Amino acid sequence: MPDADPAPANLHAGPGAAPHADRLADLIASRRAVVGVVGLGYVGLPMVRAVHDAGYRVIGFDVDQTKVDRLRRGEAYLKHLGDDLTRQLAASDRFEPTSDPSQLGNADIIVLCVPTPLGQHHDPDLSFVENSTRQIARVLKPGALVSLESTSYPGTTREVCLPIMEAAGRRCGRDFVLVFSPEREDPGRQGVSTRTIPRLVGGIDAASAALGVSFYRSVVEQVHEVESAEVAEAAKLLENIYRAVNIALVNELKPVLSAMGIDVWRVIAAASTKPYGFQPFYPGPGWGGHCIPIDPFYLTWKAREVGMSTRFIELAGEINSRMPRQVVERVVEAINDDKKSLRGADVLVIGLAYKPDVDDVRETPAAEVIDLLNERGAKVSYHDPHVAAFPRMRRHSFDMKSEPLSPARVARADCVLIITDHRVIDWAMLGEHARLIVDTRNAMARVGKVKARIVKA
What we know:
Layout: H1 21-29, E1 34-38, H2 44-53, E2 57-61, H3 65-73, H4 83-91, E3 95-98, E4 109-112, H5 127-139, E5 144-148, H6 156-167, E6 176-180, E7 199-203, H7 206-217, E8 223-225, H8 229-259, H9 264-271, H10 295-305, H11 311-321, H12 323-337, E9 346-350, H13 365-375, E10 379-383, H14 407-412, E11 415-418, H15 427-433, E12 436-439, E13 453-456
Parallel strand pairs: 1-2, 1-4, 2-3, 4-5, 5-6, 7-8, 9-10, 9-11, 11-12, 12-13
Antiparallel strand pairs: 6-7
Helix pairs in contact: 1-7, 3-4, 5-6, 8-10, 8-11, 12-13
């Protein structure tokens, strides 16, 4: 647990300071503050763990009663976090999960960890942020700190959350303080946690920033205060746009180099020997997850609002979005080379999750690939050791369950299509018994000599 630092001197009441600042500063310094975390998913539950580990009493709120019930029973529903977390929380007298928003009225600090998806036309869907803000505005304890962690466009904290709270008759600086501190979760990444990942904190005003920094410093190892909530919001978008455009770059290079008879993965490995000025990114079947396919379009939308264009970002989105279709075209070509048609072909997809070694299928490119294969008449099945059944998604719905992976099943497939390269997959077995493997992740490069025909896509 991080040491309890004394409250910074600039938190105590002075000209223009929030009247409740002294009290909240003391509660943070002594870890007697009650922290409410709104949203108990991929961002909220790790935040609960970090705050609880720091010694605070935590109220975990979620509208999904199933999650609340499972937490009370100590049952894990996010596999990458392990079973110990939920068991420890269930046994603790400092954690209370609830679906009753009135319980958040007992919190001195409220952290919003709710989804920010895209609408049908790539416009921001802030309904979760807006509804959560309205809920807490009705019950907010005087002097509470509110922190928005959900990724959004610059101005969301000030232009969306602040007016909602003030419409409830509360005033920032008098009745509450408000900051933006973007989440930086990466499900499945080894060796890091919410506590060890550096934090940005930007406030609506100086008093908000000071209290926000004090709280996060009590929970995580490094905190960087920035000039405003807008700077923190834009920084989070830049982090993910940087990844999106670099992924698009190698995705565009892949077919170009392939047409020249050059392996893009060998090119990336060669370029990676340079110790400066280059960071490797890798091609794949598309983009997925809670950040990369979504966050760049938040800035694109906001840019249009101020009369600007983001052509580079939009081009990256177009390239990454068309990758599932390119993968399917590569499957068609590979099956045709075997003098077969995709219609009626047995295609076994390896991996449903959007990244290796997790059960997270949010925005996974596998969903669109399977949709396109079905449209062309293929008989599609999948194997994923982390995803037993295909969950219902916003744009896709399949009645499918993961098939066991065996030599006989692999040999029966007309095409084995690798979408996600989970470490637990027996890649050597695939190479020994498959007839045709279309590999979007260069997974088979880790295997020596294989009998299967390998086509990279």
